[in-house]
Amino acid sequence: METISIQDRLFPTMTCFGCGPANSRGLQLKSFVGDGYVTAAFMPWPEHDNGLGFLNGGIIATLLDCHTAAGVLNEASLHGWDAPPGALLPFVTAGIDVRYLRPSPLDNAVELRAVVVKSTEPEIVCDAELLFDEKIRATGHAVWKRWRVR
């Protein structure tokens, strides 16, 4: 496994709330290339409470979106699909389908896994899971499109 996160390696000046290393008030998600998938761990904050003592669904969706970003941007980097002039990233989220399967803890770290399931220059599709205690708590199916400056 790599020792530097995909975020720090590929977009260190990004200010995205979920995964931007340059956003000191953001989630600071750090994803790493693993054996066949991209992995991350995230420790929820008390502010991420859904009002019932579990991890908020919006935070879960953000984590899944931003974790697929790591998988997608790593894939783009491997293929040399750089951001076009004037664009911040080579790909952007075109859509994400999030499914909540069971509550996620607020007081324990959760694990994220992502795998690219389709990779072409115009579109990369990535699936992700949020897990705790080896049980899938939520899934995300994200479609990312090539950023075209207009």
Describe the structure.
This protein has 150 residues and is an alpha+beta fold. It is built from 2 helices and 6 strands. The chain has a 6-stranded antiparallel sheet with strand order 1-2-4-5-6-3, with helices on one face. A hairpin with a 4-residue loop joins strand 1 (31-33) and strand 2 (38-42). The longest helix has 23 residues, at 57-79. The protein starts with 5 loop residues before the first helix and ends with a strand. 34% of the residues are buried.
How would you sum up this structure in a few lines?
The chain is of the alpha+beta class and 150 residues long. It is built from 2 helices and 6 strands; from the N terminus they run αββαββββ. Strand 1 (31-33) and strand 2 (38-42) form a beta hairpin.
Describe the protein's topology:
Blueprint: H1 6-10, E1 31-33, E2 38-42, H2 57-79, E3 91-100, E4 110-119, E5 123-132, E6 135-146
